[in-house]
Amino acid sequence: MTANVYCTSSSVGRCRIMDIREIAKRAKVSTATVSRAINRIPTVDPQLAKRVWKVVEELGYYPNTQARALVSGKTRIFGLIVSEITNPFFPEIVQSFEDIAVQHNYEILLTSTVHDPKRMESSVRRMIERRVEGVAVLTFGMEEALLEDLRFRKVPLVFVDVGPPVPRVSNIRINYQRGIRQGVQHLAALRHQRIAFVTGPLVLKSAIARKHAFEESVREIGMRVEPNFVVEGDHTMEGGMLAFKRLAGLRSRPTAIMCSNDLTAIGVMREAFDHGISIPRELSVIGFDDVRVAQFIIPPLTTIQMSQTEIARLAFKALLQDVERDTPAANGSEYALNTDLVLRKSTALASGQ
Amino acid sequence: MTANVYCTSSSVGRCRIMDIREIAKRAKVSTATVSRAINRIPTVDPQLAKRVWKVVEELGYYPNTQARALVSGKTRIFGLIVSEITNPFFPEIVQSFEDIAVQHNYEILLTSTVHDPKRMESSVRRMIERRVEGVAVLTFGMEEALLEDLRFRKVPLVFVDVGPPVPRVSNIRINYQRGIRQGVQHLAALRHQRIAFVTGPLVLKSAIARKHAFEESVREIGMRVEPNFVVEGDHTMEGGMLAFKRLAGLRSRPTAIMCSNDLTAIGVMREAFDHGISIPRELSVIGFDDVRVAQFIIPPLTTIQMSQTEIARLAFKALLQDVERDTPAANGSEYALNTDLVLRKSTALASGQ
DNA sequence: CTGTTAGCGCATTCAC
DNA sequence: GTGAATGCGCTAACAG
């Protein structure tokens, strides 16, 4: 394809890109016909359509999406708000989301809040300004105030895990209990009596939910949760290291540690290594998320999987459904997502027994 | 801020968002004045400006960027093409790039090629359709054909590392030699005689450049490169594992392995672990990139750092400069970026000596 | 089935 | 310093 442009003498050194009129002129049809041909409206005469496409190809013409959006009211952009793209949990989702978006001719407006309310606010503003047709919120529990601005504008929303049960908002509910129960029972079966849990930042609903799931799972099997064994982390590797230090300082140390996410687990393992503690021989560790790198660290991390691909798929589906429906839609849809333990090499029989 | 909208009876159940006319009406000024006020044109009467802003705030009005772009010809979008967002090297760049973009009121159109020529092509198409004002290409060496389409449309481009020296294209040249030489000399100082190198995919110019830098550095200190010790990887952890298997199968095994990127190094370490080989006691490993997780794996990875923040900063700067210049710009700018060894715990004295 | 026409929401001429 | 009018590139009525 030769991407031709034509230059007007008036525009010094600046070449005007083709517009629909130029295509129409060269194909000897009206602009309306060009528009129809390009949008593959079936009622257009195949002869003409072919002529149009020929010119389009020859000149490397690409419709101006801004103009298109302006008149049609459809921008074909979905917003994607994540807490931080540098958390390895998110890139997989972004990738999958993009894959699907490309298939559906949608574009993505990706913003991250970096846990900063100001950035959260600006994210929402950017979404509104660009007139996204829907927004997937993957912050796992930040301010719901933001939501109001979007909801008010009737922008379809899908929340992962933490969405409030308000009308017109879809939710992907995650069954934390299932995977975490599997983890706890796995450790119990390995004769661990002293199981610790490093939480995420407890301002996040998802972190609270995981903590509750842990406590519930422990109680289910007739054990009690030692308060000292539940320490707050922040879902970073540094936080995991800090948490381990606190745990290591205890008189009676845990023989197993479950973590609210994989980064935390990696930090815990790293700090344990610095303390000369061998994993899994002296300490069992279980993560959460199953980020890609989890299977490559040493030892490979036993963790609880939450399918990133599936999250992306469901989120996109929810948004697309809302957009394609012409009736305003009474209630958002609800999706459920399971979590499951995946066994690797970071757990073993409790040593002291 | 109360994001008011007004509903017309004609639009059943659908509320019209404010437009500039509605603001003008309520502020009792013309649309031109509203436009000027919003764009902070200094010649507008402060009284009127205040009146306009008051209404804007009250109604939660956000200008329609599509319309704005259409008339001004400026979309305020920069494209960012990466090879794959799931490679932990990129999220940091994306994050930094976004941070800067937000400051400058730019939006990012992020696309990944996933090493697929089709996706590369569609990336370029998406960029053109959305009329981005510039594109940063961080694929480290994919087809340059794509470039033509953009270059032809006079879209400012900045390449990292692999840009051809064509007019109107900026480049961020990376000094691989510097960091890799440091790595090689570090290993030599540790008395390693048998140093292997796991390359990236050799279709990538950046991978070739790293390999050359390695070979050159080895020769510089009077050693020769054992051909068997240079094996091709693919910049993934799986590739690293495979590469190590090949290296482990050699009669005379290397005592140190340098890798073309950190993922490869992590794969190598992982496979070495499976072979019961202890790092760094029996094998020294050096990575490249210094991704965040490198400092948290066990043992912490000695690697060659290439500042992701700096890459993002330079790329954005190059684009912005091109955009703000009104004269078409003869030649793109050239930037240089250094690489440096960062010592951690994955290297040690050669054991067999 | 095709062409003509009228906006989409805004920035930017021009008169005033 | 302000307002009325024009057009950015395209789609959707409508008329033919």
Describe this structure as you would to a colleague.
The first copy, chain A, has 353 residues and is α/β, with parallel strands linked by helices. Chain A folds into 3 domains: 3-72, 434 Repressor (Amino-terminal Domain) (Orthogonal Bundle); 77-174 and 308-337, Rossmann fold, CATH 3.40.50; 176-306, 3-Layer(aba) Sandwich (Rossmann fold). In chain A, 41% of the residues lie in helices and 16% in strands. The first copy, chain A, contains 12 helices and 12 strands. The first copy, chain A, has a 6-stranded parallel β-sheet with strand order 2-1-3-4-5-11, with helices on both faces. In chain A, strands 7-6-8-9-10-12 form a 6-stranded mixed β-sheet, with helices on both faces. Chains A and B meet through helix 4, helix 5, strand 2, helix 6 and helix 7 of A and helix 4, helix 5, strand 2, helix 6 and helix 7 of B. The structure holds a DNA duplex (16 and 16 nucleotides).
Tell me the name of the CATH class of the largest domain in chain A.
Alpha Beta
| Total DSSP E strands of chain A | 12
- Count of spatially separate domains of chain A: 3
* Most residues in contact, chain pair and counts: A-B, 62 and 62 residues
Strand content of chain A: 15-25%
Category from helices, strands and their pairing of chain A: alpha/beta
pLDDT averaged over residues of chain A: 90
Question: What is the second-level CATH architecture of the largest domain in chain A?
Answer: 3-Layer(aba) Sandwich
The biggest sheet of chain A, with number of strands, parallel, antiparallel or mixed sense and barrel status, is:
6 strands, parallel
| CATH fold assignment of the largest domain in chain A | Rossmann fold
Specify the oligomeric state.
Answer: homodimer
- CATH superfamily of the largest domain in chain A, please? Response regulator
Terminal residue distance of chain A: 72 Å
Tally of helical runs of chain A: 12
Q: Low-confidence stretches of chain A at least 5 residues in length (pLDDT < 50)?
A: 1-15
Spatial strand order of the main sheet of chain A: 2-1-3-4-5-11
Radius of gyration of chain A: 26 Å
Structural shape of chain A: elongated
Share of residues in helices of chain A? 40-55%
